[in-house]
Design a protein that fits this description.
- The protein is mainly alpha-helical.
- It has a two-stranded parallel sheet.
């Protein structure tokens, strides 16, 4: 892997991790998907960062629950799908002038909505 690609993935993973951490405190940022993105970036760029992330006492459980098939918390699903559609609809209505691109963005949003909703919902342990 080239040095530039590795650095790009580390930076993207770190930004995703930072936003995921903010998502713990801010209700509009979905924590689990952002931590999964960070893990995906780190696993392709840095064994050390990936190992740190998945064993971290604060973040590791989000990733572990997903990887073990326990699912994604309902709150993360709702917020993730809501933010996805709000941002896509804003972009389609106010930013993008080309109809073909608008249709493509709606199809992308529909696919990711389906992907998020098909994931098992994490049951809170009592």
């Amino acid at each position: 892997m080239s040095y530039i690609k590795k650095m790009f993935l580390i930076i993207a993973g770190s930004l995703s991790l930072g936003l995921g951490v903010l998502g713990i405190f801010l209700p509009l940022l979905p924590t689990t998907p952002l931590l999964l993105l960070a893990a995906a970036c780190y696993v392709r760029s840095s064994d050390k960062l990936y190992e740190w992330l998945i064993t971290n006492k604060y973040f590791g459980s989000y990733i572990e629950n997903y990887r073990m098939g326990k699912g994604i918390p309902l709150k993360a699903k709702i917020i993730g799908v809501s933010v996805l559609w709000i941002s896509m609809l804003y972009t389609v209505v106010f930013v993008i002038p080309l109809m073909a691109v608008k249709i493509l963005l709606i199809l992308i949003a529909a696919y990711f909505t389906w992907f998020i909703l098909k994931q098992k919902t994490l049951k809170k342990s009592t």
